[in-house]
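Please review this one:
***
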Amino acid sequence: MESFVLSEWLQQHFDPAGDSPAYQRLYALISRAILEGRMAAGARLPSTRDLAADLRIARNTVLQVYDQLTEEGYVHAGVGRGTYVQDISQDLVEAPVAPEDAREEQAPHGAGRDAHLSRRGSRLLAHLGFSNRQSGAFMPGIPDVREFPLKTWARIQNRQWREGPWDLMRYAPAGGYGPLRQALSDYLGSVRSVRSTAAQVVMTTGIHQAIDVTVRLLCDPGDTVWIEEPAYWGVRNLLASAGLKLVPIRVDDEGLWPGEAERAQPPRLIVVAPSHQYPLGMVMSLARRRMLLDYARQVSCWILEDDYDSEFRYGSRPLPSLQGMDEDGRVLYAGSFSKTLCPGLRVGFLVVPEALSGAFANAVAELYREGNMMLHSVLAEFIREDHLSSHIRRVRRRYAERRACLIDGIRRHFGDTLEIVGDAAGLHLVLALPEGVDDVLVERDALQQGVVTRALSTYYMDRTHARPGLLLGYAGATPEEIRPAFDALARVIRRYV
């Protein structure tokens, strides 16, 4: 386009009385004309004096726009020779055409795969388990955030802010906030028999991040990892997306039980929840714990202990950790405050063997640039002043009442015809359904009635041997909410049983 045509086009499109600054609007129009090819490479722009007169704006405005266009490579100017459109075309190297067999290998693996995603991304999204519904009956694994000790927390937090927390407003040092690491080391030693120093405690944002950094540092793609069968979908999905080979190991009443063929192929990592298996709820026996530790020592593999819901046992004290029995430095112990306080805190931790403490602390700092030291300082004081223990004792009583209310509803509707599994601890129980019942359909129909539950079969890698049932979380609902919700769920169950 010739320069005088550009002037005419700008007069048609440029509004001197627009809302944004004049130079921004003029810049946008000229750059658009160049990008759209309205002005070919080498075309001369009108002089700043002429264009300012045509558009009835200050010449300085046009000068500012031309300077910006020059800086960004749209135009080039020569002293006394005018301003010209730069050649912004780019010769692209022609992409090689892949052979037929290679194109087949790169093709989507099924209709559900997004062609824009990597294989790892597709694996991650292929079996989503999270829910946007995170409250009420009977969402499993959710505490009642209404029980959070707001006044105590606010009092500690206000005190921390008043003391001029400038050091707490920076990135955290490697491993996390030192006083919280020390408080956790002391606390875990007293209530869970975890043996550690503060240096072995590494702060994370939760179990998922703890697992992520563990597999990054200890596993390579293709390595074998044992997981429980059934297992928490979040752990399974995270490990699979990392390119690890998952081997599901069945659990029975005593916990994880690998067979002879499985033991003959040692894994790099074993992920286990010995204190409260999720979702079935059994506790790993002492004999199985000793077996697992001996096996890890013999084959030099690692154990990641997920201490899920260990604080909430009804009728007995919390069991000691597997880590506390480890004499060979093979166990990494992971926990969080998502169940004891609230998920929104996003505070978790790893207790790693002493030989790994420096590597893990540095890796978390490098990968995630941890902060939240103000939050961590409040939590450290909260633990040191014994508020955490008091809070857990109080909500444990509340959750025990809700558990009893749910069990009463099950017995009232079904007597002993449906088995209750894993109700001795945690924030949920499993209501077993008869063989042949499609628990996924039950879950779907219950949701249509406003009741949230989880189908037990979806927690199995091998669905052909999956046991049907429903996970019923009771911690996040009061007895007044539990009773009508289970009445509605019972009506749905009767359609299938």
